[in-house]
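Wed. Picked up where I left off yesterday with SalK. The coffee machine is broken again, so keeping this brief.
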Amino acid sequence: MTLHPRAARRCWHSAVNPLHSTVYFSPEIAEEFAALGIADPVAVNLAHRSAAMGAVGAGAVTAAFYNYRHDLVARHLPAVWNTVTPEQALAARLRAADAALTRLLGADTVKSPEVAEAADLAMRATEGCTRHARTLYAAHADLPVPEEPHLRLWHATTLLREHRGDGHLAALLLAGLDPVEALVSHTATGKGMTPKWLKGMRGWTQDELDAATGRLRERGVLDAAGGLTEEGTALRERLESDTDRLDAAPYEHLGADGLARLTELGGALVVKAVTAGAFPRDLMGRA
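Structure written out below (tokens, as returned):
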């Protein structure tokens, strides 16, 4: 079967990325890092997501993450590595993923044949990933694969998430969107983070968000109310299409039948996790 042009994107948005992202907002990740002496949620986020790259400094993380304010990153890195090692951060993240997925999905579900099947499919997809010019994916690809099916699935979604994310950065550069413009235009779609989260977890000020909004209006991307214009909608679609093209290999490797099954299985798990309260209610949207 031939892959539908948007099938991979649908799988990533509905099954892969949300399943991986459950750990970001879980109380378990905060508890694990608090036990290691790190309580600031921004420091926790930066440490556990960048740890695969080793004890790197602010410059490398700002480059790899793209849309975090550099001053925010520099406030915590490399200082956080004086409190916790990258190895400790990775171990804490995996423990948090274990506890969070078990809580959100239920003990029976994480041990189910469906989770094991989804893990096998997702890991098979990662065989099609490539390392070149993909900093976060390549760093995570060096990590050992967990044995437990639900953690193997989470690890695979992490690889697939970062593989697409690395390609997305290239698409953003090609589209001429700086970090704040990328965030503001994504929020305008209704599918990105709300301004509250852009300020709290990405470090941008209201003045910087307003300035980016002004630049996007001048380019014809946003209208007077801050919504996407027809040109802006086309820009965001080109951006996603370019990202699809750069991220096609793992899903082509999996094949149409496998992709459909992973979307079905992963999507059902995501629905269960969301119903159980995996994400803050005010996380996404324009308000």
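Quick read: The chain has one domain: 7-275.
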